[in-house]
Specification:
The protein has helices spanning 19-26, 74-84, 88-111, 119-126, 146-151, 166-184, 187-196, 198-208, 213-217, 224-240, 270-277, 281-287, 312-319, 340-346, 353-359, 389-392, 397-415, 434-441, 445-451, 453-456; strands at residues 2-4, 9-10, 15-16, 51-52, 65-66, 258-265, 302-308, 329-333, 338-339, 366-367, 372-378, 425-427, 466-468. It is mostly helical. The relative contact order is 0.09.
Length: 470
């Protein structure tokens, strides 16, 4: 049976989205806007609340109506300017991808009683890239961090990451956005909380005694990323619904992709299957972005796998009844006596039960020197392959520095030494760190930290700070 890429089945509630309702009704060839946004010619023809973009007459837009609040102020203008100039290529790339995903997202938002124009929140989050990943380990079209993804029913384990599944992640995002709007009664605050977390936004509101996003934005408590988040969404909405007005009328939107869908057994070797079908295995991963490894999850009886439609006949003739059980595991010979859990730690395999399942022995089993252990990497595959990037992923440098800084402070506080009644001070110079100050002054770093704990525990040291050193 033939399906389009946007026609996926969601097992949680057995909700199905039909190809005809998604594409024939919403995927238009008109290049004046990214397909999926709210179609509003005038306030009276739309069932949801409608917002008119005031003060933007100078733009001569085709579309001034939105179903989320959109304003035209200095902050929004800044982002429009960015996407029209330095970020133009990014906007064109995001928009092209939007041809494939925006109609699906809009349909599902509508089914959950949410505004269509929230597709621009997803555009701001991921650029409509299913495998997008942020420095904070947020993943997918809607950039869920692991904890929030799990709260909203997305499965994340060694084998699959449903944050990358366009349907399941959109259902989860719809639930989360609906909850945020119910909590705040305001899309600007709801979007801010989606980005920064409810706790951060609630503390900002309490600190400044206001529930107006634009007032909160003037203060420094919210990070610049969050202060710019709402204006960025609004700029993308203005541009996305007025492509011709801004000279983006030649974007080649990605269209729907034909695929066939089959039930394959758990633990199916996708590389071997792709070779038998005479296709690149990357085509399978493109159609099944939630799959993380070279074989389907072994804990399921069957897995609903999408394959390119051109390979459908080959699959029926040569693969449907053939055994593709994964067996081409790499082997590791232990260099000393150890446990299976220690082998898992060595190769960054989490959870260690993955090794337990492959080797059919308990994770705490004692292994002798020279004993062979099967690893979940495929023969001939480099363990630094992009497929395992999550094992070796490192946060940005400034995040690593901040974590090391906090770790050092914890260690110093546990040590407990400090200078009583200090008589000598050091003025922090540009480029100084706690480590460099300790070296310059000869003051042990733990003593330096504990003596100046009121400064260093609150923030990293800055030029001009006076630190007690004697």
């Amino acid at each position: 049976m033939r399906y389009f890429i946007l026609v996926l089945l969601f097992a949680l509630s057995f909700v199905s989205y039909s190809c005809s309702s998604l594409w024939t009704s919403t995927h238009k060839t008109d290049s004046s806007s990214i397909v999926g946004g709210a179609l509003i010619d005038e306030p009276g023809n739309h069932t949801r609340e409608v917002y008119f973009l005031e003060g933007a007459e100078e733009l001569n837009l085709e579309n001034y109506y939105f179903d989320i609040p959109v304003v035209y102020n200095a902050a929004v203008k800044k982002w429009i300017h960015y996407y029209l100039n330095r970020g133009r290529d990014y906007f064109e790339t995001y928009s092209a991808r939007g041809g494939r995903y925006a109609p699906l997202l809009a349909k599902m938002l509508e089914d959950n009683g949410l505004p269509h124009d929230l597709i621009y929140l997803a555009m701001a989050e991921s650029g409509f890239h299913t495998k997008a990943r942020s420095y904070a380990r947020a993943v997918g079209l809607w950039q869920f961090i692991p904890s929030t993804g799990l709260i909203y029913g997305l499965k994340i384990d060694w084998y699959i990451d449903e944050r990358r599944d366009p349907v399941k992640s959109t259902i989860a995002a719809s639930k989360y956005l609906k909850k945020l709007y119910e909590d705040y009664g305001d899309w600007e605050l709801a979007a801010s909380a989606y980005n920064a977390g409810e706790g951060k936004v609630n503390r900002a509101m309490a600190r400044y005694k206001t529930d107006n996003f634009w007032d909160l934005r003037k203060r420094r408590y919210l990070k610049s990323e969050t202060r710019n988040y709402v204006p960025k969404i609004m700029a993308l909405a203005i541009l996305g619904k007025n492509l011709k007005s801004f000279g983006f009328d030649n974007i080649e939107f990605h269209g729907p992709i034909d695929y066939a869908e089959f039930e394959v057994p758990g633990n199916t070797d996708l590389v071997a299957l792709a070779q038998e079908m005479q296709i690149d295995v990357e085509e399978i991963y493109s159609l099944n972005p939630e799959l993380r490894r070279w074989y389907t999850p072994p804990y399921v009886e069957t897995y609903r796998l999408k394959i390119p439609i051109e390979a459908e006949d080959i699959y029926e003739e040569r693969c449907k009844d053939k055994d593709f059980t994964a067996s081409a595991f790499q082997k590791y010979k232990t260099r000393s006596a150890c446990t299976l859990a220690q082998v898992a730690k060595k190769f960054k395999i989490k959870p260690s039960s993955v090794l337990e399942d492959i080797n059919s022995i308990p994770v705490n089993t004692r292994l002798a020197k020279g004993q062979v252990v099967m690893l979940p990497f495929r023969e001939g595959q480099n363990i630094r392959d992009a497929m395992y990037a999550d094992l070796y992923w490192r946060p940005r440098k400034h995040v690593r520095i901040r974590r090391a800084y906090r770790r050092q402070i914890r260690l110093a506080k546990a040590n407990g030494q400090k200078i009583n009644n200090p008589k000598e001070y050091y003025t922090v110079q540009k480029g100084d760190s706690l480590w460099s100050v300790s070296k310059k002054t000869g003051t042990p770093i733990n003593v330096l930290i504990n003596t100046n704990i009121t400064i260093v525990e609150r923030r990293m040291i800055r030029q001009g700070d006076k630190l007690a050193v004697r």
